[in-house]
Design a protein that fits this description.
By secondary structure, the protein is α/β, with parallel strands linked by helices. The protein has 2 domains: 2-129, Thiamin pyrophosphokinase, catalytic domain (Rossmann fold), CATH 3.40.50.10240; 136-209, Thiamin pyrophosphokinase, catalytic domain (Rossmann fold, 3-Layer(aba) Sandwich). The protein has 4 helices and 13 strands. The chain has helices at 32-39, 56-63, 80-90, 106-118, and strands at 2-6, 25-30, 46-49, 69-71, 95-99, 124-127, 131-136, 139-144, 151-156, 160-167, 173-179, 194-199, 204-209. The strands form 2 sheets. The protein has a 9-stranded mixed sheet, sandwiched between helices. The protein has a 4-stranded antiparallel sheet with strand order 8-12-10-11, with no helix packed on it. The termini are far apart.
Length: 216
């Protein structure tokens, strides 16, 4: 089972959702993400949020089209995305893809990244028009070279990430240790059909990015 969660991030950051419309996928709307889904012609199975980012008319319109919508108070101890992700995790999904989680407010962006780290043992992807973000615990991983995502970056999310080894990359590494704040592993590329990355300690975030121009 695959669960797709659409948050309330800016529409210009959200990719074409229909390109991810697998037959077995369950769609979940979060706050303004419910409106994004409905306008795209996709009816979410579940909806969560305090809906403070939509108008009362939009909320009433959504309620006429949804069977399961949970309206939460604006004053609570979790974000709307955190609530939706908790539900998705309870369904024992094989993979969770999150859209509408980047762009706009930076506090929500960093909060959503923290959710990746907190649930590092779960197969979760955060996807926008330019990037796919995943978090990883120690182990060895195989990644496919695809022209869709040219650049691959690895960012430490704990004080130390130890034993990083990159094979099949333009800039290989062997048993390298990096610390929080390091930019050593930013903007690498695969030079073979497949590559591997592995490490022995810490949490590592991988960002695969399209070639839409360098910012720095």
């Amino acid at each position: 089972m695959i669960i797709h969660i659409v948050g309330g991030g800016p529409n210009e950051c959200i990719p074409d959702l229909h390109s991810y419309h697998e037959k077995e996928a369950i769609w979940v709307g979060v706050d303004r993400g419910v409106i994004t889904l409905l306008k795209a012609g996709i009816t979410p199975t579940k909806a969560f949020g305090d809906f403070d980012s939509i108008t009362q008319a939009e909320l009433e319109w959504a309620q006429t089209r949804l069977n399961e919508i949970e309206i939460w108070p604006s004053e609570k101890d979790k974000t709307d995305m955190d609530i939706a992700l908790d539900w998705a995790l309870a369904q024992k999904a094989d993979k969770i893809k999150i859209f509408g989680a980047t762009g706009g407010r930076l506090d929500h962006l960093f909060g959503n990244i923290q959710l990746l780290i907190k649930n590092v043992k779960t197969n979760i992807e955060v996807i926008d028009r330019q990037n796919m973000i995943t978090a990883h615990e120690p182990g060895e991983y195989v990644i496919e070279n695809t022209p869709f995502y040219r650049y691959i970056s690895f960012i430490p999310m704990t004080m130390d990430v130890k034993g990083i080894t990159l094979k099949g990359f333009k800039y290989p590494l062997t048993n390298c240790h990096i610390q929080l704040g390091s930019t050593l592993c930013i903007s690498n590329e695969l030079i073979q059909s497949h590559g591997t990355f592995s490490f022995s300690e810490g949490i590592l975030m991988m960002i695969r990015s399209k070639d839409l121009g360098r910012s720095f």
